[in-house]
Amino acid sequence: MKRIPLTIATSEYDHMRDFRDGTVTAVGLDPTWLTLEIHEIFTRFTFHREWEVSELSFAKFIAQVTREKPDIIGIPVWTSRQFRFSSFYTNVNSGIREAKDFAGKRIAVPEWAQTAAVYTRGWLQHQAGVDLASIQWIQAGTEQPGREEKVELNLPDGIEIERVTDKSISEMLASGEIDGALVARVPKVFAAGHPDVRRLFPDYREMEERYYDETGIFPIMHVIALRKDVLEDNPWIARNLYNAFLEAKQRAMARFLEIGVSRYCLPWAVDHAERMMKKFDGDIFPYGIEANRKTLAAFCQFAFEQGIAHNHAKPEDLFAKGADLEVQI
Question: Residue 226 in contact with residue 73, Cβ under 8 Å?
Fold first, then answer.
């Protein structure tokens, strides 16, 4: 049978390795896999749709998939998911000692539609009780000046964003020109030990576990998107891709739990994986809509409230119909 060629672009992930290297195959498909830096992937797919299947920031994805006539759709597979209490940074002279102190302060984000910042702003608003309109928002590149938003925004009343094009967040955080920042990547000034830059929550691991226990939210950062035109004549492609991604992930999870050899150069990796399996009810990285409904519903709400999504979508609205259909034998 002739297989349909398509191109997949993602960063490098162990839970996709077996699909990427051909150990796992997607029935009926002949994929070419591009392993690129994530921001290059996001930019090229968002602006030019250069390939059929792409890793994509969840925030940029939801902005595009909720347009009036979207040309992309998702499959409920996540390349990256990460708790983000580690991403709150402040200048020690800012007067910020806890979350409520963000009110009235100058806080920077690399992009308003950065997924990590959507979750952290959602937490500030809903759990910490901070009015997002009370914050003076700044947008700039984390390490390089000139970073721009990649999707259109419809900011809610009271939210204003000042774009800074000649300085980086790292630079302004160290100098005190901004009071704090919400950034996914560790700022270089913090990594270098700058005395005036600190994490607001140095005990972020404990906070993240408590947040999960209280909300059931395990933040999804990046999703798999595909061009809708791919499915016009072959709607089965979405499900067959899902099956292959799922099998590759299951094989990666089995490697984590193999105690006979050290598959990963991390002491007690298997013990940690076993503990996380218990905490996450047997699946530490679940795919599919239903297993992730709380996380998906929360993100849909946050993205709409923050002016990124064009409507308050339901999780089912984001993904190809039937892609994660359960089949029992």
Answer: yes
